[in-house]
Give the backbone structure.
Amino acid sequence: MTSLFSPLKIRNIEIKNRIVLPPLVRFSIVGTDGLVTDELIKWYEDVAEGGTGLIIVEATCVSSDGKLRENQLGIWDDRYIEGLSRVADKCHEYNVPVMIQLHHAGFKEKIKDVSSETLEQILADFKRAFVRAKKAGFDGIEIHGAHTYLISQLNSRVWNTRDDEFGGDFLRRMNFSRLLIEETKELFDDDFILGYRMGGNEPELSDGIKIAKYLESLGVDILHVSSGIPNPEYLKEEKVEVPEEFPLDWVVYMGTVIKKYVNIPVIGVRKIKKEKHASWLIENGLLDFVAVGRAMISRPYWPKVARKEYDIRNGIKNS
Ligand SMILES: Cc1cc2nc3c(=O)[nH]c(=O)nc-3n(C[C@H](O)[C@H](O)[C@H](O)COP(=O)(O)O)c2cc1C
């Protein structure tokens, strides 16, 4: 039976278990210059040593004016490659594959008024950042297409009310992602994979399913289902109807639904803190990977603790 500690290979990338560190911006240990710091490398080392299967490095900005906060990692210039390669090397010392999330904060609701030239420029920034990420030695890229940032804004039928090549209907809203993926195809191979973090609710789960299927058809290797831009009429965060018997968060639920519609691996996330919940999701084939975020900040060795809990629950004696 598949367990939380079963390996999985994506192309040539061997992932030793189903536990993922999701991207987590660490503002307090990154300066305003956006360069990698020794403290940041120590954080990723702690996680790699702690037994996680796959690390996704935090949202790293592709344009100098696209940051979500001052203290965010950058990749808009070649001078960032050296520091980022130290992060990749450190994870590899522990045999942990490491991807990097590439990000642009975007324009919120104003996405509808941004000139197409500006979007073309940002697309070019993304493409250059992809090349740098590969040069830095990462095992892949995760496109940040969730959480109301640029690509989520474009994918959203709530905010993207444009009527040009970047909006108007589903395919035009997805055009930025399609161009980015198609025009960087030659970079990706069995040793360099493409991931995409998407909003499961963009704004409804039915939109998320459509986006996921489309991304699979474009050749994305792994999906990471998180949240998107909600419908304005929702007053509270819970927008997706979750069956009463589903014991975990609604964002995790969206991942489990989307997994049924695609044949590529799916990472689910949000408030997964206990080994027994993580194991339940994997053992029942509801997800391929679980991402553990905040719990990993307080305990980067979360997977080691989970392994002990798993062994006790299953009556496995450690040698
Ligand atoms: C401090 C912090 C930083 C985060 N940074 C990012 C990020 O860089 N990119 C991203 O897609 N999500 C980011 N998130 C969201 C997390 O990846 C994750 O989806 C969220 O924390 C829910 O998972 P958890 O309940 O296991 O923490 C961040 C969340 C926190 C708390």
About this structure: The two ends are 22 Å apart (CA to CA). The mean pLDDT is 96. Residues 116-135 form the longest helix (20 residues).
